[in-house]
Design goal:
By secondary structure, the protein is an alpha+beta fold. The strands form two sheets. Strands 1, 2, 3, 7, 8, 9, 10 and 11 form an eight-stranded antiparallel β-sheet that branches. α1 crosses α9, α3 crosses α4 and α3 crosses α9. The longest helix is centred in the middle third of the chain and has 16 residues. It starts with a strand and ends in an 8-residue tail after the last strand. The mean pLDDT is 97.
Length: 338
Amino acid sequence: MKRSETLVRVMRGELAESAHRGHLAVADAQGRVLYELGDADVLVFARSAAKPLQAIAVAESGAADRFGLTGKEMAVICASHNGEPEHTATVLSILTKIGKTAGDLQCGAHEPYHKPTADRMKAFGLSPTHLHNNCSGKHAGMLAVAVAQGWAADGYVNAEHPVQKLMLETFAQMSGWPTDRIILGTDGCGVPVFGLPLAHLAAAYARLGSPDALEPKRGKTCRRIVDVIRSHPRMIAGRDRFDTQLIEATRGRIIGKMGAEGIFALTVPETGLGIALKIEDGAMRAVYPAIVEALRQLDLIAPAELARLESFHRPFVMNRRGEIVGRVEPDFRLRKPE
């Protein structure tokens, strides 16, 4: 196993005060690793980066068409959303269409990621519900599959449930990593989470964006998933979030999805490339500088797009007086594997 490499440094004045190490893989739809840093074969949990791939199962199960799910609703199924009113209303719309309620979600509740929304709720004495969980869209999609297939909704989060077996099989097919070699854990929202080599996550995203070599039904579904995310960037994350702003800045040319503990994966459909990143210590502050820098070095992002994403590429370090005292700086050079 190759060692991780320093990808991002936190500068305070002239001194690198902290550093974040990690791994990065750039792959094509054939699974070939074109560039890497650290170890492209390092085992990682995909975390929420799996959601757009899991949404394929929602469409292919027939649930999306049976219940007339809109593009917006399909996009929120792919999301780690902010819990803004638009997000919760869209998840609730899915639940209404399938004859379920927020109480049927088994993802748990947490405060909205969107601070203004959380502050307004506190001001009115409102407690967060399952709808505010960033994973509520994914869970609503899983419930939709269960209802469409006539499976019991109870226990849909368990690895033995047919919904989760379908999610695992779909993820394995997209990643090219055998089902029986995927390491299962439990995600923050209670469903199984998938562990696999980082390069296979990158390849899965390459196939998602460039599915011409997949069988026709799967290819059509992949294009559908990319199109709904591209058309509804606010649903995939929300205001002030990188996933949304990456799509908006590139006008949907690049589609990316974060995952907890320092994970990010993206697809650039016009090039057939997928990129996957793991920050070793799980620090999200290092994820976005590294991803934007990788896009810059690969000439996948235009100067005007880069300018729009500058606050993510090289974010300021601020002190309590509101003064700029440093920056979070990417510090690496992509290279082809040896």
